[in-house]
Design goal:
29% strand, Androglobin_IV, 21 strands, Globin_CP_ADGB, single chain, Androglobin-like
Length: 438
Amino acid sequence: MRALSRVVASFTGEQDQPAARRTLEEAHCPQNINTALGKWEHHKVFNSAVYHMLCEALARKLTAEERFAVLALTVDPLLLASGHKEDSPAYAESKPPENWRDRQATDKEVKAVTILQAGFRGHLVREILNSSKPGTKENLSASKILLDMWPKVESDADKHAVFLLRYIIDHSEREAELYPCQQDEWTRITFTDYSVSLQDTANSWVLVFREVFHVHKEMQLVPKVYSPIPNCLLHVINNDIGEELDMVFNKLATHVYQPNKLGYTFVAEAVTPESPPAGAKWRMRLIGLREPLPKLSHEAPLNTFSVKEFRDYYIPNDKNLICRYPVQVTTDILGTIQFQTSKPDVLIHLSILDQEREVASSTGRGHVVIPVFCFLANKDEKNQKGCSTEDKGVKVVDTPQQRDGKSDSASDQHQPPTETMVSLTTVCVVSAVTQTLY
């Protein structure tokens, strides 16, 4: 990283820049690569690593001017020719004209396009070489852009140096070891802590933590919970399929997380007979073998939720139905549903029905939880003027078909939906295998 920083700092120096480039090549090019083809392939991977490292440091895609400055820095006209062309706005938004749709180009048109592409490629190569050459106006412009970007890189130089090294190792096509430090890989772990304050509540059941994490590459991950409340349980749900990951003795097993579209929701619940200590904090540590670890869907974890609680008595009936609540949803919302009875040995089945079809369920004894479920409002209802959005978009309609125990529902609007979704009117049903409830 220091060698690369020296190239940026001396980018306009006619004597300093060539020397800095030679030092950079000696620093990143492995000594066991001796052929010209091997060096060319390694330089291609290194240049791509520099591009991605800058995107990571800036936490965004590069602008057209910044991309061109990176081309001048790497002196690699082919850097954006493949693999990164989707970053170009022109590539993402371009559409063929109407008269070009559903037709094949003629031989003359193909030849003409080939000539234009060759001419443009030659022009681009000349522009890049000119921008990388000290003493030109284009070189000064590229240097200014690079110097504007570089403070973000130097603010956490060690992190971005590791990113560069990791990218080179992961994307190199060589099977041989590139650097001696690769031998340290099996002894290394990385972790990130997420902490929230425990809310002071009179309820025995508490929703402590609920956040969506996005996994960008396959990784083995172990979550470790540090809680002042002993009876704390952590659930992880794959949002793409709506299924909870396996547990062993009420603890999450080591799992290889695969990249998915909607991420994984981590939900922590706790049962405590008394209020938690004042100022108590709950902490989760995500432990992995390498960076980057999964990222939150937003900047800071939330620890406050809108809670609705219902208490009532069970009336024996032929269907063993404890209660049934219609839920009217006026806006997309993520919710957690918990139900418990005063008799601890009752086998309970909690269901969410959409037009009488069960879309989610959970079974437990004396206590049952659906850790996460996304209720989606009907599109027509969303567009109606004056529709109710109070209580964060959820209205639970009390009905006479209930009754027992206690039901809690916690919801918020700050998380992306899971793949399991229900429409405007949803019904939550609780039934019991036995009627001996007290």
